[in-house]
TrEMBL record:
Sequence ranges assigned to domain 4-oxalocrotonate tautomerase-like in this UniProt record: 2-59
Keyword Isomerase: yes
Superkingdom of origin organism: Bacteria
InterPro entries for the chain: 4-OT, 4-OT-like_dom, Tautomerase/MIF_sf
Species name: Lacimicrobium alkaliphilum
Alphabetized Pfam families for the sequence: Tautomerase
Class in the EC hierarchy, top level: isomerase
EC number: 5.3.2.-
Catalytic residue positions: P2
Protein name, as recorded: Tautomerase
Amino acid sequence: MPYVNIKVTDEGVTAEQKRQLVKGTTQLLADVLNKEPHTTFVLIEEVSTDNWGIGYQVVTELRKSAKQI
């Protein structure tokens, strides 16, 4: 019973994109590991950019810096 946790920043991931992630992840596990799709769990978590850090900065600040360039 595979469990996959996908974390993305909360920057407008659509319901359709999430559906595609669930479908694609489930299919990948079925193809590569021969796992049953009906027992494969995929959880998508949207994380605030204030709660996601890269290096010494949170993503919110990184995005602001990138827009100024």
